Amino acid sequence: MKIGITCYPIYGGSGVVATELGKALAARGHSVHFISYSMPFRLAHIRENIFFHEVDVNTYPLFEYPPYTLNLTSKMVDVVKYEKLDILHVHYAIPHATSAVLARNILADSGIHIPIVTTLHGTDITLIGRDPSFAPVINYSINESDGVTAVSQHLKEETLSCCDINAEIEVIPNFIDTDRFRPLKKDHFKQALCPHGEKLIVHVSNFRPVKRTVEVVEVFHRLHSEGIGIKLLLVGDGPDRVPTEHRARELGVIDDIRFLGKQEPIEEILAIADIFLMPSGSETFGLAALEAMACRVPVIATNIGGLPELIIDGETGFLCDVGDIDAFTDRARLLLGDEELRQRLAEASRKRATECFDMDKIVPQYESYYERVRDRVLAEAV
To answer: Is it true that the peptide bond before 136 is cis, omega within 30 degrees of 0?
Structure first.
């Protein structure tokens, strides 16, 4: 199939999943066309069967803000028409599904019937979807999509409860390449960061307030003050990086913390981690946690959103209430002090990642869904 994919190209879960899906589809023989305002973060470079179409955002004195939704619509029309795409797969309801619906209607006037699949990832529903000023557009864009998927059962239920949706929603979970994300021997790397045999705690996020990165530092400080030999790596960047650094200085633990910013390949960092912390206030799936699990790292996360669908409490990691720093500290202390338990949870984490969320199990679900949606749309057009 010739598949168009539109996503946010920046550092974040939805863009990562969309890009990895496109790469996996290309590896399976499909022709994949990314349509976005810049090269997706995880794409790095164009390879066989992968094409990139940049959306030009023109500025005119008439517009106070460039109308990206309309620029994207025009680019979708152009790519569908001249590349003869079979389907458009858009990630995020606004503005991508909105643009896709408008592009489909424009193309229909030319006798071209392009099916649209919209994948919901989280904040397009849990944050933007709750804004009354966006609600009519989100509801319309989702309901007008020919197929709709959500990355977790939790997100599906959240969408149906907070939006006025009559479309059927298929749950297709996020996935990873477990050949890429796997245990690696990086002893020299860990020795450089932990020269005295310290244990290493890792957190990866986009440092938005919902990720609660200051709490990672709070947990680290409590463990550090108990005399436990530990270091902390914070990977990623965003609006809460400065407050997080400031709190680390206030608590006097900044010298044992490394802020690494955005990093690729992340698997080399996860390979040396002993524990992964994720105290998020909201997670519709938790892709970073899955990446850690595949690298054989136990995750301590919040018992919220889609995380309980990923982490089995007490078997592959631990789940704590949002904001319960005491519980996060206790679970981390337990894992750091009991190597046998940590290894058992690490092995179970890797097993769950490979058995349930490997791309070779999930990508065929998308292929099958594309075919069903395409066949239905073409049958209705006859």
So the answer is: no
CATH architecture entry for 2-175+359-381: 3-Layer(aba) Sandwich (3.40)
pLDDT digits (tens, 9 = 90+) for 256-305: 999 999 887 899 999 999 999 999 998 999 999 999 999 999 999 999 99
- The pTM (predicted TM-score) of the whole model is 0.90
Considering the domain 187-356, what is its CATH architecture? Answer: 3-Layer(aba) Sandwich (3.40)
- The Cα–Cα gap between 34 and 43 comes to 10
Domain borders along the chain are 2-175+359-381, 187-356
Cα 176 from chain centre: 10
What gap in Å lies between CA 121 and CA 15, rounded to an integer? 10
Scanning 28-146, the segments in alpha helix (DSSP H) are: 68-83, 98-108, 123-126, 135-144
List, as one string, the DSSP characters of 170-222: EE----B-TTTSS----HHHHHHH-TT--EEEEEES---GGG-HHHHHHHHHH
